[in-house]
Design brief:
three-stranded antiparallel sheet, 130 residues, single chain, binds FE2/S2 (inorganic) cluster
């Protein structure tokens, strides 16, 4: 596993996305209310640009007429033929056990300046590199 810095957090605001080339692969990185997900930008149906699709919610029905809408913004709909995928897992909504798109773990790192100990020796300031 290799790590790749793809963006600053501020480049992908909540509800936003960034499609980046990562080591020769087109990958969409999504921010859903501060949670980040990454999926391969290639639909398993016919190779459409999946990550250019709309993000929507999940529509379910326990019984006819009892429609429930949930998980707003967590489902990605392919722009070509409408297949839907869970951003968190890459699994399709209609056949989650067999149809999925590759998903990747995303980490948010805090940038931290490298610091070094400083000592005073008589009238000289000394930086200590270890
Ligand atoms: S290429 Fe994505 S649904 Fe057909």
């Amino acid at each position: 596993m290799t790590r790749h810095v793809v963006a600053r957090v501020s480049d992908i605001p909540p509800g936003g996305r960034l499609i980046a080339d990562v080591a020769g692969r087109s990958i969409g990185i999504f921010n859903v209310d501060g949670r980040f997900y990454a999926l391969r930008n290639s639909c398993p149906h016919q190779g459409g640009p999946l990550c250019r699709g709309r993000t929507v919610g999940l529509v379910t029905a326990e019984r006819p007429g009892e429609i429930r809408y949930s998980r707003e913004g967590e489902i990605l709909r392919c722009p070509w033929h409408g297949w839907e995928f869970d951003l968190a897992t890459g699994r399709s909504v209609f056949d989650p056990s067999r149809t999925r798109v590759k998903s990747y773990p995303v980490e948010v790192e805090e940038l931290q300046a490298e610091t070094y100990p400083v000592e005073i020796e008589r009238d000289r300031v000394v930086v200590v590199l270890t």
